[in-house]
Specification:
35% helix; alpha/beta; 14 helices; 7-stranded mixed sheet; Rossmann fold; 2 domains; Quinone Oxidoreductase, Chain A, domain 1; 6-stranded parallel sheet
Length: 402
């Protein structure tokens, strides 16, 4: 009775929703395709909380369920390549489970499903591939299009042969990149874009000659952001390990490169110098954020932006509501410290953004953005790819070939 009432209510308020039957495709031929393909990939069957990563935590499934298009704005995609991000490693340990599972329960309810099982869980965010089926409302793409994109963290991931994605999570693939090269970019690109434009209030028309410091410039996020900022005409300085100096200088012409283990020279030379500081370091090498704030210009248009938010960890450790309260307290303290120096401090998060992907596609096609890949792995080698990311000190991205 409850399920019937809920389904009737949701169907009236959101006309495209059905029960658990798939929404009809706009192409009968592609429906036939989707009914006869086999899906396979890598999964985890539980969170490995407080455990070190081991390759056998990843389980290969040769008979995965074929993903179904429930939403008319979704597409069925044959994945040709994907990448492994540090996020995938921490999600194995349950990172974000409290917040992401709450989001996922709501998502399942909107499909009139009153039960929810997180496992088996497929990891992976970035992907490139070919559209094999489209929902009834998809107008921007057609079957056969070569695309790239990045899935929201609360969805099943891209480390399998077939996925369902919203048309808002992808765009056409850059024509000059292979599937493998294209799969290395979207997640890092959209995280960087969100940090700069949503949380940092940057505008492209105002970006030229902005002075930016990137903490942690050698991973996927750092290597992309260096190139993006240089395409805008920014002055870019970075921190990295000493042995990565030559690597980062090959990305673009940099103003300065600092050894992240010894930042004394940076603090002495650059007080009040930068318009933006982007903190991508996996762990902070600065014991007091106020030291970093002093590197910013003393005005309301300067920003310290960090992807090291405690939001997910607080919720995982303390529960959803108490965790949110603790995070609000941390955010308030950081904001007060920055305001005392007449600057801004924000946590930055990944966000899907199709228009950003379109803009970045054009930068790739004009060679202003180049994929930076440390190593390629075949799909059957995926646990080894995870091990490589786990070992850290990456120089670009780790990509999976299907």
């Amino acid at each position: 009775m409850l399920k019937s009432i809920l389904c009737n209510t949701l169907t009236k308020s959101t006309r495209f929703l059905t029960s658990i039957t798939p929404i009809a495709s706009s192409n009968h031929q592609t429906n036939s395709f989707s009914n006869h393909v086999s899906n396979y990939g890598w999964q985890i069957d539980k969170y490995h909380i407080d455990e070190e990563f081991k390759q056998d935590q990843l389980i290969f499934n040769s008979q995965m369920k074929q993903p179904i298009i429930y939403n008319p704005n979704d597409l069925l995609i044959e994945v040709k390549a994907a990448s492994v991000n540090p996020l995938d490693l921490v999600m194995i340990k349950g990172y974000g489970r409290e917040i992401l599972d709450n989001i996922n329960v709501i998502t399942q309810i909107t499909k009139c499903k009153l039960s929810y099982d997180r496992f088996p869980l497929v990891l992976g965010r970035d992907f490139s591939g070919i559209i094999r089926n489209v929902g009834a409302n998809v107008t921007k793409f057609k079957v056969g299009d070569e695309i790239w994109g990045s899935l929201s963290p609360f969805k099943q991931g891209s480390h399998c042969k077939y996925i369902v994605a919203s048309q808002d999570e992808l765009s056409l693939k850059p024509t000059n990149l292979t599937f493998e090269e294209a799969a290395s970019i979207p997640y890092a690109a959209l995280t960087s874009w969100s940090a700069l434009f949503k949380f940092g209030n940057l505008r492209i028309q105002d970006a030229k000659n902005k002075k930016v410091l990137i903490l942690g410039a050698t991973g996927g996020l750092g290597t992309f952001t260096v190139q993006l900022l240089k395409s805008f005409g920014c002055h870019v300085s970075v921190t990295c390990s000493k042995d990565a100096n030559e690597f980062v200088n090959q990305l673009a012409k940099l103003d300065a490169v600092y050894d992240y283990r010894n930042l004394d020279k940076l603090f002495m030379e650059k007080e009040g110098y930068f318009d933006y500081i982007l903190d991508y370091a996996s762990t902070s090498t600065v014991d007091d954020d106020s030291k970093l704030f002093r590197l910013l210009r003393n005005n309301s248009n300067s920003y310290y932006l960090t992807t090291r938010s405690p939001l997910m960890k607080n919720a995982d450790k303390n529960g959803f509501f108490i965790g949110l309260l603790k995070s609000l307290q941390s955010a308030s303290e950081m904001t007060i410290n920055s305001l005392q120096m007449r600057t801004n401090a924000r946590w930055a998060f990944y966000e899907t953004n199709q228009s950003a992907l379109e803009y970045i596609r054009k930068l790739c096609e004009t060679n202003q953005i180049r994929p930076v890949v440390q190593q390629y792995f075949d799909l059957e080698q995926l646990p080894l790819a995870y091990q490589t990311v786990y070992n850290s000190h990456l120089r670009g991205k780790i990509v999976i070939k299907f």
